[in-house]
Design brief:
Length: 133
């Protein structure tokens, strides 16, 4: 099992490097100013790595039950909210592809909701200890 985990980590690292290179290439095609290229690259990289992480976590959680599964459900919600934050900021604020909905920047709200989801996940993990006793 340890060897499989190491292979998954190595593949995830390789995919991460590929996604960073891909994000940078796309950002260079969109923007010419260096600091904007870096910002767009990191936001796109965050979105792509978040999607890859989400797929890995969802596939892992399928075998869980009880408080462990419920805690990971909240981790999944937190990842989704972080993805939503990055995508929202990239589309509405950084690239201005669409006007802000209602003229309000909501990305901080998504960040806060993500933090709340991760905190709830922590408490659910603590409940798992009670199930083991």
């Amino acid at each position: 099992m340890h060897k499989i985990g190491k292979i998954i980590h190595e593949r995830f690292l390789a995919v991460s490097v590929f996604l960073l290179v891909l994000s940078t290439g796309v950002a260079v095609a969109i923007e010419t100013e260096a600091r904007k290229i870096i910002a767009i690259s990191l936001e796109m990289f965050g979105i792509l790595i978040g999607i890859a992480s989400l797929i890995l976590v969802i596939s892992l959680v399928k075998s869980f039950k009880g408080s462990l599964k419920r805690s990971f459900d909240y981790i999944i919600y937190g990842i989704v909210l972080q993805l939503l934050t990055l995508a929202y900021f990239l589309v509405f604020v950084r690239l201005k592809l669409l006007p802000l909905p209602g003229g309000v920047d909501l990305h901080h709200l998504f960040l806060v909701l993500g933090i709340i989801s991760f905190t709830i996940a922590t408490f659910k993990l603590r409940n798992m200890l009670n199930e083991l006793k």
